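Troubleshooting: if your tokenizer reports a length mismatch, compare your output against this known-good record of 115 residues.
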Amino acid sequence: MNLQESHGKLTLQNVLTNDVFEYTLRGIVKEPLAQEHMLIRCRAGEVAVRRVTLNNNTFKAVSYKVETDLEQITGLSTFDVQPYTPYVYEFAVRPLAGGIYTGQITFQDSDDPNK
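Known-good structure output:
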């Protein structure tokens, strides 16, 4: 598990009394857990299309890089999500041979310090 220490500062000001309260924040950041487990049934040589919705709940656009360890998957390798907007990422699965495949798809944002 990849752990990283993060620091921040929170300043609150009461505009009526001009009181200012400053807090130093410190925390340990862990990699996020998987958001979803998908089971895709598809015959060899056939194509199955799936979609994953990503939400950008920030005030700025976010650029994502897509990484996967599955050779049978095709889709965009990068994309941008506008502020406060959901984005539907579409990918296709086309296994060339029968069997059971396991792997992951990771969406890594451009602001991620671990990239």
